[in-house]
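Same chain as my last thread, 245 residues:
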Amino acid sequence: MEKTTYIYGIRAIIEAIESGQNLGKVYLLREAEGVLMGQLKTLVNNKKITTSFVPVEKLDKISSHGNHQGAVASISPIDFASLEEILENRQVDKKDIYLLLDGVTDVRNFGAIIRTAECTGVSAIVIAESGSAPINPATIKTSAGAVFNIPICKVTHIKDAVFLMKAYGITTIGASEKAEKNIYQTDLNSSIALIMGSEERGINPSTLKVIDTPVKLPMKGEIASLNVSVACGAMLYEIVRQQDS
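reply #2:
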């Protein structure tokens, strides 16, 4: 029997409803009030979603003591998109951004990256079938519901996705602290696939060898590296800046 997936947090649930996700049941704190809670109650009523008003102990239990803000919902797992179909149907004259995550395993980093990717108009996120963070309630909560607004694709190996991007004429760049050029010295005014590696080892060396250009962020402090979600956000916004200029 498939285990029920729960999402929690008012904004995450609102995003899930507004994006047409299939919610099974919404659990709300009996005494919860506020503008956002009022908006959520209106949405579940309008959509005729089954709602149960419960004590905080119930919400704490089903959210594993996460920051639920008085709202938890059961949800069907997301459907992963086909990367090949996305690339086949892309507008050739449009400058797209694709984000490939090579070994990001922390669910909160993953959720934060998804949120930034959605805000920067990323066309799809690509993860490997193994060695990647799962999409679970913590991921959904950290993404503020953005996980429902952006296609997420699974591939056997990230290197396969790099080759596919290059076959479609998409420039591939990868974050590496050993890169000679920083991202601000790199021409990004075209369709770009950004590859981000794990905080522990970075991009897999075999993947790094096949990308077009390794890039780095300038570091002026004594700490040698940034959190992967922060570094990803900085790089995505530089791509957006150049594409929009």
